[in-house]
Amino acid sequence: MQTVVAPQGDVKDRSLAERGRARIAWAAASMPVLAQIRERFEKEKPLRGVRIGACLHVTTETANLMLALQAGGAQTALCASNPLSTQDDVAAALCEFGIPTFAIKGEDHARYYSHIESVIGTRPQMSMDDGCDLVTTIFKEHKDLLADMIGGCEETTTGVIRLRAMQRDGVLPYPVIAVNNALTKHMFDNRYGTGQSTLDGIVRATNVLIAGKNVVVVGYGWCGRGIASRAAGLGGHVIVVEVDPRKAIEAVMDGYRVMPIAQAAKTGDIFVTVTGNYHVIGEEHFRAMKDGAIVCNSGHFNDELDLEAVERLSVRKSEPRAFVEQYELSDGRNVCILAQGRLVNLAAGEGHPAAVMDMSFANQAMCAAHLAKQHRSLEKKVYDVPVEIDEEVARLKLDSMGITIDTLTPEQAKYMESWSEGT
Question: Which of 46, 134, 172, 305 is the most buried (most CB within 10 A)?
């Protein structure tokens, strides 16, 4: 395959690389499944010569994924999938590992997209996305690359929604595997990872006591379930806001209060959005909030909060702590927005623990290898992760934990496949 010489990257400070290396190694110790896949990749080289462009959160866990892809023979380039989710020491270390990385924590809108353009400049044949920004930018502005694209992987619920919309409109340019939809991804990463890391980000930013607070979780998908569970575990009184009646019933039966956002706005002390939708907290809700209300987002885009509205309503803005913007409203009340409305778990914290990202990124690596091998037989559709990959990731994780499970006997397997047995 063609070799493209990539620029060396754009990071905050190359001198941070040594610290980044140490932190990447620390995360690797909690990622045994990905380590096994990396060892396999080093021997088999399933990605030999494939150019992969990745737009992901630049964290220690992502670094270990990039190293596994590199071990598999891929030529990789990486940019951030969110302006505040980069760990600058990790970005520096990846450049030292020979992986061009374009990411600086706090980069503005223009630089964010210039970094995406830098990755596109390596002429990727496979995309690896967290939110679909790379795919849509290639589709809108670089159609000349599409003939060489063999496929992509998408990590998030938000990204999968965008990709399915592209497929529905008949414009999805190549096959994409919805890594987010693997059971070993969304049931663990979204629930346990987002749950723990979101509360961690809130506490790091504010040092607020969760116990006794009314915590409003807007959206009760797997991320919302995880946040609600962890908030309740810390003594918070959880209120769930939902538009899906089935999820609302589940939240009620999980022991939480359920109400519309207009009602919850008057009651909540801490608000977390995880819907993937637009302006789920808006002007009328900010107007109704208590003095000192804390508002944050753990969905992919900051569009979940109407930030222009809170700016309009405020007469003064201050930053009493890192990642806390306090808006004083005209009546003297204060509303605090965390991390500029961006992913609070990555902006104010470190993101998901490595142990849970082990499964998510194992899926990413194995799906990339699957695409490299099978892309000629795939249509321009959004595919679920093949069941055999999902199950293998689960087995490897159990093995790494020293846990064994039963298998069906031949008689049991036959029974489960039969329709003729009855009472």
Answer: 305
Quick check: pTM over 0.90?
yes
Distance CA 290, CA 110 (A): 35
| pLDDT tens for each residue of 168-178 | 999 999 999 99
> From the CB of residue 32, how many other CB atoms can be counted at a distance below 10 Å?
17
- Rounded Cα–Cα distance for residues 93 and 78 (Å): 12
Assign 298 to helix, strand or coil. coil
- Residue 346, φ and ψ in degrees, nearest 5: -95, -35
Give the Å distances, CA to CA, from 368 to 62, 156, 175, 216, 315: 14, 16, 12, 37, 50
Q: CA of 209: how far to CAs of 205, 214, 215, 362, in Å?
A: 12, 11, 11, 35
Torsion, CA 140, CA 144, CA 147, CA 150, rounded to 10 = -60
Domains (range + CATH), the chain: 9-185+352-400 (3.40.50.1480), 193-347 (3.40.50.720)
Query: What tokens does 277 get?
Result: 């939708």
Query: What per-residue confidence (pLDDT) applies to 7?
Result: 65
Average pLDDT of 197-214?
A: 98
- Beta strands 257-258 and 270-273: pairing type? unpaired
Burial zone of 417 (CB within 10 Å; 0-12 exposed, 13-18 middle, 19+ buried): exposed
What CA–CA distance (Å, rounded) separates 316 from 10?
35
Compute how many other C-beta atoms are within 10 angstroms of the C-beta atom of residue 414. 11
Long-range CB contacts for residues 133-140, cutoff 8 Å, separation at least 24:
133/55, 133/81, 134/53, 134/54, 134/55, 134/79, 135/159, 135/162, 135/163, 135/166, 135/173, 135/176, 136/162, 136/166, 137/113, 138/173, 139/166, 139/171, 139/173
